[in-house]
Design brief:
Layout lengths: L8 E2 L2 E2 H9 L6 E5 L12 E5 L9 H14 L4 E4 L9 H12 L6 E6 L2 E2 L4 E4 H13 L5 H5 L4 E3 L15 H11 L1
Parallel strand pairs: 3-4, 6-9
Antiparallel strand pairs: 1-2, 5-8, 6-7, 6-8
Helix pairs in contact: 2-4
């Protein structure tokens, strides 16, 4: 994208703020994980920041997931929603839907949306303790792929989501422009 996606402007505010505002009504705790020294937009009251530890910095997004899950586990959180700062299509309805569906699956470590053959770990609901244990084991084995965290989790077809567009990517300027055009 040529710049930090957290700062892309959507509706007059940084994209990260849009994500936080979508999560806040549904999630009791929000943890934003960043690289050490990364400048972020104002996170707002009650939003916690955690940084990748220097010893793990640069080892991929699974490190950020681990750091966030550790903070949630210390707070006693049982269920969580996993997102990214560029989740432009994120809605409260999607987050609530995913958390409610996971709560109805007491033996599942998480629930991941699936669009055709593509899994979307950054739109998943998860149980904090089992997901944390798996993230630790993966990183200890020098396995860094976020996709490995969700392997074996139950999936939910994108067509079953309240707003399937939540899975639409925002990784290239053209995709971002499409969202801006839609927002107008």
């Amino acid at each position: 994208m040529g710049r930090d996606k957290a700062w892309l402007e959507l509706g007059g505010r940084p994209l990260l703020v849009h994500v936080i505002e979508s999560l806040a009504p549904v999630c009791d705790r929000i943890v934003v994980v960043a690289a050490p020294g990364q400048v972020l937009p104002a996170l707002g009251p009650g939003v916690e920041r955690a940084d990748d530890p220097p010893r793990l910095h640069g080892r991929g997004p699974l490190v950020g997931v681990l750091v966030g899950l550790e903070q949630l586990a210390r707070a006693g959180v049982e269920l969580a929603y996993l997102s990214s700062c560029d989740a432009v299509g994120l809605t409260r309805a999607h987050v609530r839907f995913m958390l409610d569906r996971l709560a109805a699956l007491p033996d599942a470590a998480g629930l991941v949306p699936r669009d055709a053959d593509t899994l979307h770990p950054l739109a998943s609901a998860l149980r904090v303790e089992p997901a944390l244990a798996r993230a630790r084991a993966l990183l200890e084995g020098d396995r860094r792929r976020l996709m490995e965290l969700v392997e074996g989790w139950p999936t939910i077809d994108a067509a079953s989501l309240p707003e399937p567009s939540v899975l639409s990517p925002c990784n290239e300027p053209g995709q971002w422009q499409a969202w801006l055009d839609r927002d107008r």
